[in-house]
Specification:
The protein has 2 domains: 1-47, no CATH class; 50-108, no CATH class. It is built from 3 helices and 4 strands; from the N terminus they run ββααββα. The strands form 2 sheets. It has a two-stranded antiparallel sheet. Strands 3-4 form a two-stranded antiparallel ribbon. By secondary structure, the chain is α+β, with helices and mostly antiparallel strands. Helices cover 19% and strands 16% of the residues. Bound molecules: zinc ion (ZN) (2 copies). One zinc ion binds next to strand 4 and helix 3. One zinc ion is lined by residues 9, 11-12, 15, 32-33, 35-36.
Length: 119
């Protein structure tokens, strides 16, 4: 059995394909490498999202219910218009996990005009 030979990505032909699954002793690779898979899914590449590039800093508390977070991990960034590439300060709101979930359920939309921008 030969181990360690990874076929190349069918798209960029430079990176090894990402791992698919194993059946018995045979490994089935996916057609594309990790990078191309991610590109295909239009997910973030290289771990940097538009939000991270924008340098947006989360508030210390939820802007909806006023929940004060002990850790920033408890807070999420809400994209008011639902477009994760719109990182304009007026489109971003710091919300707690509760409100984030609620927003996704209710599909709440805030008017851009209602917002105050943090400095
Ligand atoms: Zn590739
Ligand atoms: Zn909240």
């Amino acid at each position: 059995m030969i181990i360690g030979i990874r076929p190349l990505c069918t798209q960029c032909k430079s990176k090894p394909r990402s791992y698919g699954y194993k059946k018995g002793t045979k490994i089935y690779w996916r057609k594309l490498c990790d990078t191309c898979n991610r590109k295909k899914k239009k997910l973030k590449i290289g771990g940097v999202t538009a939000l991270q590039r924008s340098g947006y800093r989360k508030n210390s508390k939820c802007e909806l219910c006023g929940f004060k977070a002990q850790d920033q991990l408890q807070l999420d960034v809400l994209f008011i218009d639902g477009n994760k590439n719109n990182v304009n300060a007026t489109n971003l709101k710091t919300v707690c996990a509760n409100c984030q979930r609620l927003a996704s359920v209710k599909h709440l939309r805030w008017k851009v005009g209602d917002l105050e921008v943090d400095v």
